[in-house]
Queue: 3 jobs
Job 1
Amino acid sequence: MADITHWADVIADEVLAKGKKHLVATGITPSGHIHIGNMREVVTADVAFRALEDKDADVEFIYIADTYDPLRKVYPFLDESYAPHVGKPLSEIPCPCGKHKNYSEHFLEPFLTALEHLGIHPKVYRADELYKEGVYVEAIKQALVKKDEIAEILQKKSGKTPVDTWNPFNPICNDCGKVNTTTVKGFDIDAETVDYECSCGSKGTVPMKGGGKLTWRVDWPARWKALGVTVEPFGKDHASRGGSYDTGVAIAKEIFGYEAPHPIVYEWIMLGKKGAMSSSTGVVVSIADMLKVVPPEVLRYLIIRTKPEKHIRFDPALPLLTLVDEFERLHSSEKATDYDRRMIELSHAAGLCHTDIPFKHMTTIYQVAAGDFDKIMNIVKRAGYDTSNEKCIRELTDNVGNWLEMYAPDNAKFSVQEELPVSTAQLNDLQRAFLSSLSSILDKSDELNGEDYHNLVYSAKEAGSELNTMMAESLNVDAESLEVNPKELFKAIYVSVLGQPSGPKAGWFLSSLEKDFLAMRFKEAAEYKPSS
């Protein structure tokens, strides 16, 4: 079978067929928590940028925060004090927590921090600053002069006829501060001003430089021209027939004389069975929260392994462990294909931590050590893992601790019991004989690793093995007639240490505990006689 080219490299080849110099852009409106669904856009853009870099393109990468968009409504996460601010640009609204310059920065700041953690480093622009600096002035002039032509394009492409009062520019009212309640009454190209009336009763004049913004369907193509965008990912909602990309292509070409950027259309990330993520509906896991529980390279891998046009179903509970397992297996596989290796390469980024400790093993180590980092490091050393990068191990430890607290189902959690659990009273004679014999073997053995413990327990059913022979003698039966079910033996281990009939992968679990502790606990459990 011929090697498959990764989708990012396919996109890079398509883009390079149009020229060598490119600007990859991505942008999100910071109206609420910027969630893992939004992450698909920025990771897709970053991966396209990196694929172009790898092919020696002259390429830049920018992120535009749509901070001049109006607040659409009082979202579920806001209190009613925000009702008067509906319709105002996000950059002109107070911060919900009082610690940021404005509303948009409240949501933008943690997102930009998350991008750093993901190894994504675009040049960041804020729309309000671009408007206030005059970057859009020429586009505003062209749009105002060619208003009717734009309206015709919108009607032709979308099938919707703009209302008579429609205008491509929305002034910000000097009195109420709203951007979606004004009507343009005239403009002066030379003075670069726009006259308006507002539904609040106000009339006035605003400068084209920062006094308002273009409507979204005109703003987008204006941005392409003003900044020189040649590649941009966007959600399927913008890509529908008659949607904003469709109208943007025509407006860019016919009004601004600019070729629309190469489109990368992506599908949604679905949150478990709850549907597509959306800040406004509250179906959301923020990127900041996700980075608390999973290594950033795994989050990158979540996006990179799936073609943009296919939706991703994401569940931060047990399926997250499966995702991490898949990534780690691929990372260490000697049979990885060129495609696999390319996925791993794109999942990595400068400054991202990586350890050789499997995430799932750390969930066991963490709980055995009850979160104590010194104890965790001792177990990690005993298990033979590389401990030279303590910073990365600490990051993994924090990820696992947060996952256990925030998303782990109850059946993934356990705690080592300090005292012998009373449930050991329910162990049968075979289980007691097994624990007693296992204790004796551990007493005289060296430290064992996970595989050693696994093999030792399974040797109980092999006639002639030391463990099998000792059990038979303890039960005073012929070894040949001894019927052993390993499942019952593992149950005895979990009951005696955790006080529950099941637990984590036994080899990892047992090797994470002190051998002397296990020998003593198994001996206690074997000899335990409940008081009548």
Note: The CA atoms of residues 411 and 503 lie 8 Å apart.
Job 2
Amino acid sequence: MGGQKFEYDESGSTFFYFVLSFLALILVPATFYYWPRKRKEDPVKQAERCQCPNCIKKQQIIEQSQPYKSLKNLFIKLAIISGWVLLGFLAYKVSQFDYEMSNFDPYDILGLPPGATQAEIKRSYRKQSLILHPDKETGDEKAFMRLTKAYQALTDEEARRNWEKYGNPDGPGAMSFGIALPSWIVEKENSVWVLGLYALVFMIALPTAVGTWWYRSIRYSGEQVLLDTTQMYFYFCHKTPSMPLKRALMILAASCEFDRRHNSEIIERITDNEEVPALLRELPNLGEKNKEQPLCRPYSIKARALLHAHLSRMRLPPDTLECDRRYVVSRCPDLIVEMVNCVNQLIALAYARRIPRLPTIETIENCMKLSPMIVQGLWEYKSPLLQLPYITEDHLKYFTNRKKHIKSLLQLAQLSGEDRRQILRFLNDKQYEDVMKVLGNMPYIHFQVNTEVIDDENSTVVTAGAIVTVTVSLRRTNMKELFGDTTLKEKETIKENEEGGGGENGEKVENDKNEKNDKKDTFKRPVWMKQTRKQSKKSKKTATNKQQPVKPAPVNTTVTPPVTNDTKKTKEPKKKDDDGEESDFGSSDESGSHSSCSEDESRDKSSAAEDDDDDQWERFQKRILKRERLEGRSKSSHPVHCPYFPQEKQEYWWCYICDRKSRTLLTAPAHVTALTEAHELQLRFTAPRWPGLYTLACCLRSDSYIGMDQQQDMKLDVKEAAAVPADHPQWELSDSDTDNNDQGDNESEFTTDDEVEDE
């Protein structure tokens, strides 16, 4: 048996195979993902797009912001095409390789049929050797060697035996392992160049690239915000527990992303020395005399002035301050999300008694209010109707008359077509059509809340100290479903059908009108439009002791079909679980009637209750699995009409639970970024330690539109927890723990309705 040997690729065939495979592995996915394609927009969506001058100008700005996009696409195409050409060349090169002893057949080499006589073999060898001999003009040394080996394999007895046994006239060869690199790499004269290339790649280029990436990445947080900015947010939010809106805007403008020393994309111009002071004189209440660091630095004052000018929709010099405004505004949404996260972490630290002061709910809500203000380029106290195209402050007088006083977008959408067209009479037909497109595509959210205690025996009864799970179901539809009429084009077709004279078309039109009127009559006003009723002062006292502050539980979000249960419907006789089984929730009379049932039915109910516990636990585990699967959240929902925002924006939402009376946040705000049609999330918090009736609020806040926020009150009737059995193991508390508990009893996070009445 032959030995083994390692050798470099002398002929280059193995190296070409390696390069061919490596290039194919790169080219196939690169062509699929990076080949430039033109996005084909849906004609329906393109027809629904607003064509107002501000939107057209925004599209032009977005296209101009990528001047090298066509050149970049050209280079990508050339690189991919060059790679495929090289791949084809390598494939052709590999196909031309001739291996000497692969499929060695001496009869085929000599051009003879199997079983030829010795005379025929000698005659054929002599004839071909005269042609292939190296001394001849037509000679080929390689072919002559193969011809000689074929002749020996058929004439020499030992060579014939080796060929029959090993497939090689020379006998068994050594097992060779080829290295897919050419042999010139280890040649002595090329050693300096090879070592230099190794040093350049592995000792200089690779460490430099990894180090540059590392030192850049450690400067940013998960939201791609500078850590220096996050640290500044923590400092100011802790310093100002109750932060007003303008203070939050001032802190936002002081972000390190707007400082040239931290961000190389910031441009400092000589013209700023004249244009920025002139802009400051036009803006009142800017707070430029604030001496706090870094709020008093020039970059912070400039960014603050640009944000105030953006919210006031002022015109700026197009080549200088306008470019700076676009950059500052485009970075604000991510910064606001980071600011909200910072306030939320401070609240969690305050609950953990690591910081003395607890930020109020107004602080985090004012931070959230900044997002729709920045996206729409509008102050919060301005009319939400200014978010529509062509509507200015001079036109707001048309929305107020003796009969109707329109203040919100929802009220405008609920009007009949004639009334709405009468109010918008200052617009022509084309402008009115754009307004209806924008208004019809705005979000209309169906907001439902269901409260339960999952890991308890009775999931509908909240006991003191239990973990309460609030399931929030969101369903998004367009506001066009609230329209009480048809559009102008549909009206024209209806008039044509009526003029054409009755018949089937006339009946269809009447039926369509009747259906739309029925939809209008059955429409229910959403929660945020309902008038709040004054609470009765004659409520019974249910709790006289003060409550213990409760730590908020982390937010868990899952996507499942919407839930149709409502927390306010507590007097239903029966309620079905997810498995289709029924549980009784009747009054005392109903319970008396059920007591007359047989013992067998009671046993069945008890066994069904045990099965329900197991099923609830299984559902709880499934929700946890879904939450883990959905950690990589999608950030694609619906485009936002925002002509004053320099980039395309997707509509997102914040959802959280708070206590308005004590001004505290109970759950971390869940950032909903994938609300396309329906979304379900779960918010968890700890119930108060003392029994009583508590009023909490589940809030839904938009980060893209002003006036789209919703709030639904939740009545939490906390019952006294069951007594612990005597044989149940108890935890031994140290003196320090009991002291902390005694101190915590003096503070109150929740406020019952009875305590408010006593005050």
Note: Residues 106-167 form a domain with the Helix Hairpins fold (CATH 1.10.287.110).
Job 3
Amino acid sequence: MEFLRGVGPQRAELLNKELNIFTYGDLLQHYPFRFDDRTRFYTISELDESLPAAQVRGRLRDWYTEGEGSKKRVVATFTDGTGSMSLVWFQGLTWLEKTLRREGEYVVYGKPQPFNGRYSIVHPELDNIHPDHELETGMVPVYNLTEKLRKRHLDSKAIGKIMRTLLEGAWPHLRETLPDELIQKYRLIGKREALWNIHLPQSPAWLRQAERRLKFEELFYNQLRLISNKLLQKEEYPGQVFANTQLLKHFYEHLLPFPLTGAQKRVLKEIRTDFVSGKQMNRLLQGDVGSGKTIVAFIAMLMAIDNGAQACLMAPTEILADQHYNGLKPFADAMGLNISILTGSTTTKRRKTLHPELQEGKTHIIVGTHALLEDAVQFKNLGLCIIDEQHRFGVAQRAKMWAKNPVIPPHILVMTATPIPRTLAMTLYGNLDISVIDELPAGRKPIKTVHKYDKHRSEIFGFMRQEIEKGRQVYVVYPLIEESEKLDYKDLMDGFESIQRAFPRPKYEIGILHGKMLPYEKDDEMQRFLRHETQILVATTVIEVGVNVPNASVMVIESAERFGLSQLHQLRGRVGRGSEQSYCVLMTGYKLSSDTKTRIETMVRTNNGFEIADVDLQLRGPGDLTGTQQSGLMDLMIADLAKDGPILTAARESAQKILDEDPHFVLPQNAPIRNHIDALGKKENNWSRIS
């Protein structure tokens, strides 16, 4: 880096530390995050507040300083013959006053805003016009920078200059990384042209082409790596063959509590195909709350046990582990199978009998939390490991479960009730086979969702009374946002008191549940609600994941504007678990942002978790959605999963086709792929990087 003209040792060190840029390749992939359009000049009379920014050429008449302390500012008058405007600065005032020239000719650039009957630009970019000073024109790149870089005069303009030097020098050495066939099929521009035009675009049209080409390439190599890993896993890792089905038949004929949906049958068929293939299964099972994933998991366990193997189910919290255990125990007992539970609160005394039972194979199924990962937990023959809510467990933890069977790694089934948009699933779980349960069990009615404003509260109380008269129960949920726990707690207590006034004892019993309560108090409140001793449970979001109460038919969400879409959807999933019609009421104030309106409208329009997840992805972006910075997903430099779904689909199909035809890239037409991967070296895990 330091040998590049305009960089030198000190700047190279700064780029290393501040932006993680060590090589020419790193620098080329430090893409601009936006462009300033300097292709045209405006006159002051043409300015309009709808312009994101404008460039004006004119003269600086005079300036003065006003205000005190933090409000101190320099205000200048700028004219161009068609009118005059104000320029305002709040920072760097001493330096400014030394450098500004009265009657000097300048180009100013910034966002025009009307103020006191004329336009003004706050903190404009100011370029001095004189013969030996080159003005910026065209589409000017703006790069992500840090304060330290700016202080050392490494701003976007400086980075742009360095980039031009690098591109001019690197031009003969930049090689094509995609096969001709793909370039022609998708009408992509070449790699060199793309890199030049992403940093120094010749026009807006060239910039669009450069973005399209680089996004496709990045997603293509991302998918190539994920699919290759999946194929390699299938070649390298054998799986136990589960061919016997006696237990399964017995369960189907005598004990299945309800007919399976078409989606459940389809998923079980996919799992069964994996089990008899002789290869290790790595499958993601997606299904909304209440879609019947647990029964599918149990039937998969039966297939394993039928063939002399043991099964385990790992959940992220004790509440979820208990719920799975309590849900599966009646089935296991009816089948004559031994099922145990292991969590952080399992006593030492119980562990002393539990560990040997597992090791000797007396325990067929074990449900637990992270406690299952402990070295002391050993199996006779672990054949199937089911992981619930995968995004809460890291790759290292999954690998630890693999090691629990040193002979043949267990089959892995990952379950999630968080619907993941298709584009995200392709990148986050592209190395897993994906199964989806996309229909609700028979007899379940879709939850009716309505949006009401605060003035409708008495109407909602009346509706709650009607439902309670029918013998149903109601949740009322208040938001909890860390910044102001005092305020939120007050909201909850105020709400609780107004509900107590509207639903007086002894006719109504009301429970309360919040994060400040001790675990046993929370459990006690939840159990009272479950036993129907309380009709209304006023709670914070601690009930988001938790106990299944089929009799609860109404979910009222207070201040719904303060919740994210996926959280609203998860909360709504607490009702609608029985055969009765259930309702979700979203209460909000009147002032709603456009994003909030979209969230509320989406909730009212659809119950489909995947549709909701797609909207959420567009509103929040992938990082927020997964809550993880998972490598392979967040390593994307230019592609945006919320917007680039069609490009991702094309990239994945292309990668799949090439790997099917030529898995080792030996055909001459795939030489660019082979050369690119070889140049990166085996250490580099992400093939979408520039060599």
Note: The chain has 24 helices and 22 strands.
